[in-house]
Amino acid sequence: MIRFDIDPYAPDGDEARRWAEQELQNQRYADAKPTWFDYLAEDVAEFISGLFSPDTGQQVGNVALIIVTVVIVAALITVLILWGRPRGSRRVRRPGTDLLGERDRRTAAQLRADAARSAREGDWDTATVLRFRALARALLERDIIDPAPGATAQAIAREAAVAFGAQRVELTAAASAFDDVRYLRRPASEQSYLALAETDDRLASLHPSLIGPTSPQAVPA
To answer: What range(s) does the Protein-glutamine gamma-glutamyltransferase-like C-terminal domain occupy (predicted)?
Structure first.
């Protein structure tokens, strides 16, 4: 005679249901659920696919299909414009980002403070280098520029001039002041530093132009 022993650890019906409910409460199951956007994208894809099926094509014709498709694409583009790019796709700006050949964790405000301290001590070379780095860091913090790794001061000035067309000359002069001290070993002066600081302060008070470098001037903040 075959004997079937009962497993003493097997749960009864109520306990098994409780275990299942506890397991389903795990966060990994919630993360795996499709979002509302997933459902929407699936519905849109099915709708567009249905438009181009043979049956639908015979009913509404090719011209109507093209019109409907254009309307859908325009609606999707409008949604992207209104919502903007997903944050996850943007480059994360960290204080330690390489900038002008150095990895510096100071913010624009900290760089300006250090530049002012060097200026009070009469160290115009250090003050000039720090102030231009502050100018560039401020533009980065405001997402106005996105320089390539190893970008020069002049490259940063050209990119900034796209948003601040009226400040093109001043930006070029600021970059030249930085290059003179950093690479050409030409000493800075109080006058050149003050001109650079004035340019930095002016950019901080302006909103970038949405038109580009041909715009007459940026909008005051």
So the answer is: 131-199
